[in-house]
Design brief:
single chain; 6 helices; eleven-stranded mixed β-sheet
């Protein structure tokens, strides 16, 4: 009988290496060149719960949800979320940062100092730099001020990040755009006194993600479905995204879509020949061989 696993998501380790995590604690490293292949064996996707606790009713959740939580568990999770601005008394120090994802695609955000660059790796930030360090509320106020003053958002959709990864400018241009915004930010008045401003120092993840010589993606998996399968060689891993070379072209798999499903190894055909999940053509691509739906 084939062994069944439940994926709990992709995690970036302290060593800057990605791995798929599975219920029970096991991890599967995701180095470049490795073949990833699996088949969906469950009939439905179930809620992953909240704050480390399982969903009490094992509610079914939509296949296209990247959160993989039912309404009640999502509410409980956000009730303890810094990102949702529901915590005001967190005593930990926070970093304010600028993150670069592509030309003209820069965001401002905050992350706990103890997490180091993990948040930036999780978001797929190709390049980033710290702006300041201080208490949570000071960091939050600075984030809002800088967003308005610099004209940059606090979120950039993954769909926009994916289509530019194969055609990024040189590191000098990436760092230069960040440096210019960092200088403008430091020149602004009204920074909270409790926030320590930090000098510009760019950290580049281009090599960590494996983006050198990355071919443009033809499509992206939109959801997992019962009985569906996928297999391909890893070309790059950025944030939650796997760029896979499959028998049908280069496809991006957002690993957040895997959580909540029961998965097993493929059967029958070779791993690179398997792709029976709905795939959407990526914006800007004109290859008629990639259809919206099953390949």
């Amino acid at each position: 009988m084939a062994r069944v696993w439940r994926c709990t998501g992709l995690r970036w380790g302290e060593d800057g290496a990605p791995a798929l995590r599975w219920a029970g604690g096991r991890g599967s490293p995701l180095p470049r060149g490795k073949v990833v292949a699996f088949r969906v064996v469950g009939d439905a996707r179930t809620c992953v719960g909240a704050r480390g606790n399982p969903c009490p009713v094992r509610a079914e959740v939509p296949g296209r949800s990247t959160g993989a939580r039912c309404e009640e568990c999502a509410r409980l999770d956000r009730a303890h979320s810094v990102a949702a601005d529901t915590i005001a008394d967190d005593p930990r120090p926070y970093h304010v940062y600028l993150a670069w994802f592509g030309p003209g695609m820069v965001k401002v955000g905050i992350t706990a100092v103890e997490r180091g660059p993990a948040r930036l790796l999780e978001q797929g930030a190709v390049c980033f730099g710290w702006l300041g360090r201080g208490p949570l509320m000071a960091a939050r106020r600075s984030e809002e001020t800088l967003r308005a003053a610099l004209g940059v958002p606090d979120r950039i959709p993954y769909a926009e990040k994916r289509v530019v990864r194969a055609d990024l400018p040189a590191v000098e241009d990436r760092v230069g755009e960040l440096a210019e915004l960092h200088g403008r930010a430091q020149a602004l008045a009204g920074w909270p006194e409790s926030l320590e401003r930090l000098p510009f120092r760019a950290v580049d993840h281009f090599g960590v993600f494996g983006l050198d010589e990355l071919p443009a993606a033809d499509g992206a998996v939109t959801e997992l479905v019962a009985g569906g399968a996928v297999g391909g060689e890893i070309l790059a891993v950025a944030g939650p995204d796997l760029h896979l070379a499959t028998g049908r072209g280069v496809v991006v798999l957002d690993t957040r879509l895997m959580t909540g499903w029961e998965l097993t190894g493929p059967v029958g055909e070779g791993p690179r020949d398997v792709l029976t999940l709905p795939v959407r053509e990526l914006r800007g691509r004109r290859d008629a061989s990639v259809q919206d739906g099953l390949f």
